[in-house]
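Handout, section B. The chain below has 440 residues.
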Amino acid sequence: MKHLLPGLLSLGIIVVSGCLLTAPSAVLGAEAAASDWAEGLRTEAKALGKPSWRPMLQYVARLHARATHPAAEPFALAWEEIGPGYNHRAFGHWDVAHQIIDVLPAAPGHARDQLLNDLRLQLADGFLPGTVWMPDQPGDPVTFNTGTQGHPPIWVVAADDCVALTGDHALLAECLERVTRQIGWFEQHRAAEPAGFFYNDILLHKWESGIDEGVRFDDTEMGAKACVDATAHVYQMCDYAARWSEILGRDATPWRARAERLKAFMRERLWDEESGFFYDVWAIDQPTMRRQAFEGIWPVIVGAATSQQAARVIDEWLLNPQRFFTPHPIASVGATDPKFELRLWRGPAWNSMTYWAARACVHYGRKDAAVKLLEAALDDTAKQFDRTGVVWEFYNPTGGDPEKVLRKPHRGQMQPFTDYLGHNPVFAMARLWQQSRPAP
């Protein structure tokens, strides 16, 4: 990999060289320590959710332990990779938020460590790197992007969940400082005109949204246009910055004002009353560009939608078998959209997105919808685990074999990766299902 360093640097990639691999005896000790931190997960798996889910949950608990490595540059604390089945050792900002939520409340210390590992990657300008590529071989460098490709800043939800559980105001203060710097970076580098925010998907096809090769950008003219997901995510950061400021006795006014402006923009400018859904600004202006892309649910996930808007999204989209409520929900592209196909982010179901959709339903008082989404997704995840002995990066929305769903065939990766934790918060899903069911 050394011959790649000049090119990586020219692309805005930080390279950290001189990383040492841990000696075998130390690795064994680290594996034992990792196993210890996951004991709470293994215990929880014995009684969580449906009995048919528990073998899969036990496996995922062990997978979390296997994915944890000793502290190594650039991480001061033991770090958890995206998943042992991925083709590189990597730490993902988008992925680790799901992993943090997944291990709470069984392992709050480990969750806090992953949050700090993530936040302390933040650069001086406020940018938070997306994926950190760790050494696969001795002497290989650590690399990560420094400005052209981040990941969605959903870490604020994981952070708030951590603080709600632990009451750690010192952690909250650090989170507030980090989020205000990140908001500043978005305002400097991702502000759309006249309002809202964008991801670099629309400028460089860098897939900063986390949705590689998303259908929204197939025929879109490039430009700094408001993306529904980016706008919702910045709103969420501002909303949390305001809440955290209030808790810490600081002035919340600037953050609350920003949040309110973005909320109004989404409700008024990114909402289509006829179809009952949220879209990117260019799709609002050009109806032929509209797609049944699940990214339109983000204003509901972050709580920016009105109750009436949320009800329509839930009933007409999330619970509609012709759209997102496929046998394994939620389809990343609606089942009747002409762009739907069984290929990465263009139809397949990602358990992380099902979790966010269910969490949105609970927020708007629709526990019934959350139960339906979670139960269907976990039933099929457990079914596929019983058949294959692994968890999959993403799933066949028809309920068929994940092996028959394509990833990136043009790059030689045909199937979804196995043993991929970053998009499988199955513990969090099972907890939410259990908490949302009607009392017996």
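Note. The mean pLDDT is 91. Compare this with the example in section A.
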